[in-house]
Prior knowledge:
The complex is a heterodimer of chains A (52) and B (314). Chain A is mostly helical and 52 residues long. Chain A has one helix at residues 11-43, and one strand at 4-7. Helices cover 63% and strands 8% of the residues of chain A. The radius of gyration of chain A is 21 Å and the shape is elongated. Chain A starts with a strand and ends in a 9-residue tail after the last helix. With 314 residues, chain B is mainly α. Helices cover 74% and strands 1% of the residues of chain B. Chain B has helices spanning 6-10, 21-26, 30-46, 53-77, 79-82, 100-121, 124-145, 152-161, 163-172, 177-200, 202-208, 213-216, 219-242, 248-269, 279-309, and one strand at 2-5. Chain B starts with a strand and ends in a 5-residue tail after the last helix. Chains A and B meet through strand 1 and helix 1 of A and strand 1, helix 2 and helix 4 of B.
Amino acid sequence: xxxxxxVTLTERQRKARRNRSIAIGLALAALVVIFYVxxxxxxxxxxxxxxx
Amino acid sequence: xxxxxxxSIEDADFRMSEATAGDFFALLKPRVMSLVVFTxxxxxxxxxxxxxxxxxxxxxLAIAIGAGASGALNMWYDADIDAVMSRTASRxxxxxxxxxxxxxxxxLVLSVLxxxxxxxxxxxxxxxxxxxxxxxxxxxxxxxxxxxxxxxxVIGGAAGAFPPIIGWAAATGSVSLESVILFLIIFLWxxxxxxxxxxxxxDDYARAGVPMxxxxxxxxxxxxxIFAYALLLAPIGALPWALGYTxxxxxxxxxxxxxxxxxxxxxxxxxxxxxxAMKPAKALFGYSLxxxxxxxxxxxxxxxxEHALGLGGV
Lengths: 52, 314
Protein backbone atom coordinates (compact mmCIF):
# COMPACT_ATOMS: atom_id res chain seq x y z
CA UNK A 1 0.00 0.00 0.00
CA UNK A 2 3.08 2.25 0.03
CA UNK A 3 2.48 3.57 -3.49
CA UNK A 4 -1.22 4.27 -2.88
CA UNK A 5 -2.71 7.33 -1.29
CA UNK A 6 -6.14 8.22 -0.09
CA VAL A 7 -7.83 11.25 -1.57
CA THR A 8 -10.45 13.08 0.38
CA LEU A 9 -13.24 14.27 -1.87
CA THR A 10 -14.70 17.68 -1.34
CA GLU A 11 -18.36 17.86 -0.41
CA ARG A 12 -19.16 19.03 -3.95
CA GLN A 13 -17.22 16.17 -5.55
CA ARG A 14 -18.87 13.62 -3.24
CA LYS A 15 -22.34 14.92 -4.05
CA ALA A 16 -21.60 14.98 -7.79
CA ARG A 17 -20.32 11.41 -7.68
CA ARG A 18 -23.39 10.22 -5.78
CA ASN A 19 -25.60 12.05 -8.27
CA ARG A 20 -23.84 10.35 -11.21
CA SER A 21 -23.95 6.94 -9.51
CA ILE A 22 -27.70 7.19 -8.99
CA ALA A 23 -28.21 8.26 -12.61
CA ILE A 24 -26.11 5.35 -13.92
CA GLY A 25 -28.00 2.93 -11.65
CA LEU A 26 -31.36 4.19 -12.88
CA ALA A 27 -30.22 4.05 -16.52
CA LEU A 28 -29.03 0.45 -16.13
CA ALA A 29 -32.26 -0.54 -14.39
CA ALA A 30 -34.26 1.08 -17.21
CA LEU A 31 -32.19 -0.83 -19.77
CA VAL A 32 -32.91 -4.15 -18.00
CA VAL A 33 -36.65 -3.40 -17.92
CA ILE A 34 -36.63 -2.30 -21.58
CA PHE A 35 -34.93 -5.49 -22.78
CA TYR A 36 -37.09 -7.71 -20.55
CA VAL A 37 -40.40 -6.22 -21.68
CA UNK A 38 -39.24 -5.93 -25.31
CA UNK A 39 -38.47 -9.66 -25.29
CA UNK A 40 -41.99 -10.41 -24.07
CA UNK A 41 -43.44 -7.95 -26.62
CA UNK A 42 -41.52 -9.47 -29.53
CA UNK A 43 -41.95 -13.15 -28.69
CA UNK A 44 -45.27 -12.95 -26.89
CA UNK A 45 -46.27 -14.36 -23.51
CA UNK A 46 -45.73 -17.87 -24.88
CA UNK A 47 -42.03 -17.47 -24.17
CA UNK A 48 -42.86 -17.91 -20.48
CA UNK A 49 -44.59 -21.30 -21.09
CA UNK A 50 -41.90 -23.88 -20.79
CA UNK A 51 -42.41 -27.59 -20.21
CA UNK A 52 -41.60 -28.38 -16.60
CA UNK B 1 -12.93 8.71 0.11
CA UNK B 2 -11.39 7.34 -3.03
CA UNK B 3 -8.37 5.08 -3.37
CA UNK B 4 -6.27 6.19 -6.32
CA UNK B 5 -2.97 5.30 -7.90
CA UNK B 6 -0.11 7.54 -6.77
CA UNK B 7 0.87 8.40 -10.35
CA SER B 8 -2.66 9.70 -11.00
CA ILE B 9 -2.39 12.21 -8.18
CA GLU B 10 0.83 13.60 -9.59
CA ASP B 11 -0.67 13.87 -13.06
CA ALA B 12 -1.27 17.58 -13.66
CA ASP B 13 -4.45 16.85 -15.63
CA PHE B 14 -5.98 14.70 -12.92
CA ARG B 15 -9.02 16.00 -11.11
CA MET B 16 -12.04 14.46 -9.46
CA SER B 17 -15.06 15.31 -11.56
CA GLU B 18 -17.72 17.64 -10.22
CA ALA B 19 -20.04 16.98 -13.14
CA THR B 20 -23.58 15.99 -12.22
CA ALA B 21 -25.99 13.84 -14.20
CA GLY B 22 -27.64 17.10 -15.28
CA ASP B 23 -24.39 18.27 -16.89
CA PHE B 24 -24.20 15.04 -18.89
CA PHE B 25 -27.87 15.39 -19.83
CA ALA B 26 -27.09 18.89 -21.15
CA LEU B 27 -24.53 17.29 -23.50
CA LEU B 28 -27.45 15.59 -25.25
CA LYS B 29 -28.81 18.98 -26.44
CA PRO B 30 -32.29 18.34 -24.98
CA ARG B 31 -34.01 21.06 -27.02
CA VAL B 32 -32.71 19.65 -30.32
CA MET B 33 -33.55 16.18 -29.04
CA SER B 34 -37.17 17.20 -28.43
CA LEU B 35 -37.51 18.21 -32.09
CA VAL B 36 -35.92 14.92 -33.16
CA VAL B 37 -38.29 12.96 -30.93
CA PHE B 38 -41.30 14.80 -32.30
CA THR B 39 -40.42 14.41 -36.00
CA UNK B 40 -39.37 10.75 -35.54
CA UNK B 41 -42.65 10.11 -33.71
CA UNK B 42 -44.59 11.64 -36.62
CA UNK B 43 -42.72 9.42 -39.10
CA UNK B 44 -43.39 6.35 -36.99
CA UNK B 45 -47.08 7.02 -36.34
CA UNK B 46 -47.83 8.19 -39.90
CA UNK B 47 -46.48 4.93 -41.36
CA UNK B 48 -49.19 2.62 -42.71
CA UNK B 49 -48.22 -0.13 -40.28
CA UNK B 50 -49.06 -0.46 -36.62
CA UNK B 51 -46.30 -1.79 -34.43
CA UNK B 52 -46.36 -2.85 -30.81
CA UNK B 53 -46.68 0.37 -28.76
CA UNK B 54 -43.86 -0.67 -26.46
CA UNK B 55 -41.54 -1.34 -29.40
CA UNK B 56 -42.57 2.07 -30.77
CA UNK B 57 -41.58 3.74 -27.48
CA UNK B 58 -38.23 1.93 -27.54
CA UNK B 59 -37.65 3.06 -31.13
CA UNK B 60 -38.32 6.71 -30.25
CA LEU B 61 -36.15 6.43 -27.13
CA ALA B 62 -33.26 4.91 -29.10
CA ILE B 63 -33.54 7.60 -31.79
CA ALA B 64 -33.59 10.29 -29.08
CA ILE B 65 -30.49 8.83 -27.37
CA GLY B 66 -28.73 8.51 -30.74
CA ALA B 67 -29.49 12.15 -31.54
CA GLY B 68 -28.29 13.13 -28.06
CA ALA B 69 -25.09 11.14 -28.56
CA SER B 70 -24.32 13.04 -31.75
CA GLY B 71 -24.93 16.27 -29.77
CA ALA B 72 -22.36 15.15 -27.17
CA LEU B 73 -19.84 14.37 -29.91
CA ASN B 74 -20.53 17.81 -31.41
CA MET B 75 -19.90 19.48 -28.04
CA TRP B 76 -16.68 17.49 -27.61
CA TYR B 77 -15.28 18.65 -30.95
CA ASP B 78 -16.65 22.19 -30.90
CA ALA B 79 -15.66 23.10 -27.33
CA ASP B 80 -13.11 25.64 -28.58
CA ILE B 81 -15.58 27.62 -30.68
CA ASP B 82 -18.46 27.13 -28.22
CA ALA B 83 -16.30 28.91 -25.61
CA VAL B 84 -16.17 32.16 -27.61
CA MET B 85 -19.83 32.30 -28.64
CA SER B 86 -22.33 33.87 -26.22
CA ARG B 87 -25.05 31.36 -27.17
CA THR B 88 -22.89 28.33 -26.36
CA ALA B 89 -20.30 29.49 -23.79
CA SER B 90 -22.26 27.99 -20.89
CA ARG B 91 -22.34 24.48 -22.39
CA UNK B 92 -20.87 21.77 -20.12
CA UNK B 93 -17.48 21.41 -21.87
CA UNK B 94 -16.50 25.09 -22.41
CA UNK B 95 -17.74 25.94 -18.91
CA UNK B 96 -15.43 23.26 -17.48
CA UNK B 97 -18.12 21.12 -15.87
CA UNK B 98 -17.37 18.16 -18.14
CA UNK B 99 -13.97 17.38 -19.66
CA UNK B 100 -13.68 16.88 -23.45
CA UNK B 101 -12.64 13.27 -22.83
CA UNK B 102 -15.76 12.62 -20.74
CA UNK B 103 -17.96 14.14 -23.46
CA UNK B 104 -16.28 12.01 -26.15
CA UNK B 105 -16.64 8.78 -24.15
CA UNK B 106 -20.24 9.61 -23.27
CA UNK B 107 -21.10 10.32 -26.93
CA LEU B 108 -19.42 7.18 -28.25
CA VAL B 109 -20.97 4.85 -25.65
CA LEU B 110 -24.46 6.26 -26.22
CA SER B 111 -24.00 6.07 -30.01
CA VAL B 112 -23.20 2.36 -29.89
CA LEU B 113 -25.88 1.67 -27.28
CA UNK B 114 -28.66 3.47 -29.18
CA UNK B 115 -27.83 1.90 -32.55
CA UNK B 116 -27.50 -1.62 -31.11
CA UNK B 117 -30.74 -1.28 -29.11
CA UNK B 118 -32.65 -0.07 -32.19
CA UNK B 119 -31.16 -2.87 -34.30
CA UNK B 120 -31.76 -5.71 -31.84
CA UNK B 121 -35.21 -4.65 -30.62
CA UNK B 122 -36.72 -2.91 -33.68
CA UNK B 123 -34.99 -3.47 -37.03
CA UNK B 124 -31.58 -3.06 -38.60
CA UNK B 125 -32.64 -0.67 -41.39
CA UNK B 126 -33.67 1.98 -38.86
CA UNK B 127 -30.53 1.23 -36.82
CA UNK B 128 -28.34 1.68 -39.91
CA UNK B 129 -30.05 4.99 -40.70
CA UNK B 130 -29.53 6.13 -37.09
CA UNK B 131 -25.84 5.17 -37.26
CA UNK B 132 -25.50 7.06 -40.55
CA UNK B 133 -27.23 10.12 -39.03
CA UNK B 134 -24.89 10.17 -36.02
CA UNK B 135 -21.88 9.81 -38.34
CA UNK B 136 -23.21 12.52 -40.65
CA UNK B 137 -23.79 15.01 -37.84
CA UNK B 138 -20.63 14.29 -35.84
CA UNK B 139 -18.13 13.72 -38.63
CA UNK B 140 -19.46 15.17 -41.91
CA UNK B 141 -21.09 18.29 -40.39
CA UNK B 142 -19.21 19.00 -37.14
CA UNK B 143 -15.68 17.93 -38.04
CA UNK B 144 -15.65 18.53 -41.80
CA UNK B 145 -18.22 21.05 -43.08
CA UNK B 146 -18.87 23.44 -40.19
CA UNK B 147 -15.48 25.17 -40.23
CA UNK B 148 -14.92 24.81 -43.96
CA UNK B 149 -17.85 26.08 -46.02
CA UNK B 150 -20.83 28.45 -45.69
CA UNK B 151 -22.92 25.59 -47.11
CA UNK B 152 -22.26 23.79 -43.77
CA UNK B 153 -25.83 23.87 -42.51
CA VAL B 154 -27.30 23.25 -45.98
CA ILE B 155 -25.56 19.87 -46.33
CA GLY B 156 -25.33 19.22 -42.60
CA GLY B 157 -29.05 19.89 -42.31
CA ALA B 158 -29.62 16.42 -43.71
CA ALA B 159 -28.67 15.00 -40.29
CA GLY B 160 -31.55 16.86 -38.64
CA ALA B 161 -33.91 15.82 -41.42
CA PHE B 162 -33.40 12.07 -41.05
CA PRO B 163 -35.48 11.35 -37.89
CA PRO B 164 -38.88 11.04 -39.65
CA ILE B 165 -37.31 8.58 -42.12
CA ILE B 166 -35.84 6.61 -39.21
CA GLY B 167 -39.22 6.61 -37.45
CA TRP B 168 -40.94 5.43 -40.63
CA ALA B 169 -38.27 2.74 -41.16
CA ALA B 170 -38.69 1.59 -37.55
CA ALA B 171 -42.40 0.97 -38.20
CA THR B 172 -42.26 -0.42 -41.74
CA GLY B 173 -38.73 -1.74 -42.23
CA SER B 174 -38.55 0.34 -45.42
CA VAL B 175 -38.14 3.88 -46.75
CA SER B 176 -40.91 5.41 -48.87
CA LEU B 177 -41.48 8.58 -50.90
CA GLU B 178 -43.83 9.87 -48.18
CA SER B 179 -41.09 9.72 -45.55
CA VAL B 180 -38.61 11.27 -47.99
CA ILE B 181 -40.97 14.26 -48.37
CA LEU B 182 -40.93 14.71 -44.57
CA PHE B 183 -37.14 14.65 -44.85
CA LEU B 184 -37.27 17.31 -47.59
CA ILE B 185 -39.45 19.62 -45.49
CA ILE B 186 -36.88 19.68 -42.66
CA PHE B 187 -33.97 19.78 -45.11
CA LEU B 188 -35.29 22.90 -46.88
CA TRP B 189 -36.40 24.47 -43.58
CA UNK B 190 -32.91 24.26 -42.04
CA UNK B 191 -31.02 26.91 -44.09
CA UNK B 192 -33.51 29.80 -43.61
CA UNK B 193 -33.91 28.85 -39.94
CA UNK B 194 -30.16 28.91 -39.18
CA UNK B 195 -29.34 31.79 -41.50
CA UNK B 196 -31.96 33.93 -39.74
CA UNK B 197 -30.11 33.14 -36.49
CA UNK B 198 -26.73 33.71 -38.15
CA UNK B 199 -27.85 37.18 -39.29
CA UNK B 200 -28.40 38.50 -35.78
CA UNK B 201 -25.58 36.39 -34.27
CA UNK B 202 -23.03 37.10 -37.01
CA ASP B 203 -20.60 38.70 -34.54
CA ASP B 204 -20.55 35.49 -32.52
CA TYR B 205 -19.83 33.35 -35.57
CA ALA B 206 -17.17 35.81 -36.79
CA ARG B 207 -15.42 35.68 -33.40
CA ALA B 208 -15.46 31.88 -33.51
CA GLY B 209 -14.25 31.82 -37.12
CA VAL B 210 -17.21 29.75 -38.31
CA PRO B 211 -17.89 30.56 -41.99
CA MET B 212 -21.64 31.12 -41.75
CA UNK B 213 -23.32 32.59 -44.83
CA UNK B 214 -23.66 36.22 -43.54
CA UNK B 215 -19.95 36.29 -42.62
CA UNK B 216 -18.81 34.90 -45.98
CA UNK B 217 -21.32 36.01 -48.63
CA UNK B 218 -22.63 39.07 -46.79
CA UNK B 219 -26.00 39.88 -45.27
CA UNK B 220 -27.69 40.91 -48.53
CA UNK B 221 -26.82 37.62 -50.22
CA UNK B 222 -27.95 35.67 -47.15
CA UNK B 223 -31.30 37.48 -47.13
CA UNK B 224 -31.82 36.60 -50.83
CA UNK B 225 -30.94 32.97 -50.19
CA ILE B 226 -33.30 32.82 -47.20
CA PHE B 227 -36.10 34.06 -49.45
CA ALA B 228 -35.21 31.54 -52.18
CA TYR B 229 -35.34 28.65 -49.70
CA ALA B 230 -38.68 29.94 -48.37
CA LEU B 231 -40.06 29.87 -51.93
CA LEU B 232 -38.90 26.25 -52.25
CA LEU B 233 -40.11 25.20 -48.81
CA ALA B 234 -43.68 26.51 -49.12
CA PRO B 235 -44.76 24.18 -52.00
CA ILE B 236 -42.78 21.21 -50.65
CA GLY B 237 -44.67 21.61 -47.36
CA ALA B 238 -47.94 21.08 -49.23
CA LEU B 239 -46.57 18.20 -51.33
CA PRO B 240 -47.97 15.39 -49.12
CA TRP B 241 -51.46 16.67 -49.96
CA ALA B 242 -50.64 17.21 -53.67
CA LEU B 243 -49.49 13.59 -53.92
CA GLY B 244 -52.62 12.32 -52.21
CA TYR B 245 -51.04 11.24 -48.91
CA THR B 246 -53.17 13.56 -46.77
CA UNK B 247 -56.55 15.26 -46.75
CA UNK B 248 -57.18 18.80 -47.98
CA UNK B 249 -57.18 19.98 -44.36
CA UNK B 250 -53.45 19.36 -44.16
CA UNK B 251 -52.97 20.88 -47.61
CA UNK B 252 -54.73 24.11 -46.67
CA UNK B 253 -52.93 24.50 -43.32
CA UNK B 254 -49.55 23.66 -44.90
CA UNK B 255 -50.17 26.18 -47.67
CA UNK B 256 -51.09 28.90 -45.15
CA UNK B 257 -48.04 28.11 -43.02
CA UNK B 258 -45.91 28.25 -46.19
CA UNK B 259 -47.34 31.63 -47.13
CA UNK B 260 -46.48 32.83 -43.62
CA UNK B 261 -42.91 31.56 -44.05
CA UNK B 262 -42.55 33.39 -47.38
CA UNK B 263 -44.02 36.54 -45.78
CA UNK B 264 -41.56 36.53 -42.88
CA UNK B 265 -38.71 35.81 -45.31
CA UNK B 266 -39.87 38.69 -47.51
CA UNK B 267 -39.64 40.98 -44.50
CA UNK B 268 -36.07 39.76 -43.96
CA UNK B 269 -35.29 40.34 -47.64
CA UNK B 270 -36.58 43.92 -47.34
CA UNK B 271 -34.63 44.52 -44.13
CA UNK B 272 -32.36 47.56 -44.30
CA UNK B 273 -28.58 47.07 -44.33
CA UNK B 274 -28.36 49.50 -41.43
CA UNK B 275 -30.91 47.63 -39.30
CA UNK B 276 -28.84 46.27 -36.38
CA ALA B 277 -31.83 45.30 -34.25
CA MET B 278 -32.78 42.84 -37.00
CA LYS B 279 -36.31 42.33 -35.77
CA PRO B 280 -37.43 40.69 -39.05
CA ALA B 281 -34.64 38.08 -38.77
CA LYS B 282 -35.56 37.37 -35.14
CA ALA B 283 -39.22 37.14 -36.11
CA LEU B 284 -38.41 34.67 -38.91
CA PHE B 285 -36.31 32.57 -36.53
CA GLY B 286 -39.22 32.35 -34.09
CA TYR B 287 -41.77 31.70 -36.84
CA SER B 288 -39.59 28.96 -38.38
CA LEU B 289 -39.73 27.01 -35.12
CA UNK B 290 -43.50 27.42 -35.03
CA UNK B 291 -43.74 26.43 -38.72
CA UNK B 292 -41.90 23.13 -38.32
CA UNK B 293 -43.79 22.16 -35.19
CA UNK B 294 -47.15 23.14 -36.69
CA UNK B 295 -46.71 21.45 -40.06
CA UNK B 296 -45.64 18.17 -38.46
CA UNK B 297 -48.42 18.40 -35.84
CA UNK B 298 -51.06 18.94 -38.54
CA UNK B 299 -49.59 16.13 -40.62
CA UNK B 300 -49.68 13.85 -37.59
CA UNK B 301 -53.27 14.81 -36.77
CA UNK B 302 -54.31 14.27 -40.38
CA UNK B 303 -52.76 10.79 -40.52
CA UNK B 304 -54.18 9.77 -37.13
CA UNK B 305 -57.69 10.80 -38.16
CA GLU B 306 -57.39 8.94 -41.46
CA HIS B 307 -56.06 5.84 -39.72
CA ALA B 308 -58.85 6.00 -37.14
CA LEU B 309 -61.52 6.39 -39.80
CA GLY B 310 -59.88 3.86 -42.10
CA LEU B 311 -60.08 6.25 -45.00
CA GLY B 312 -57.00 4.92 -46.73
CA GLY B 313 -54.70 7.32 -48.50
CA VAL B 314 -51.87 5.23 -47.19
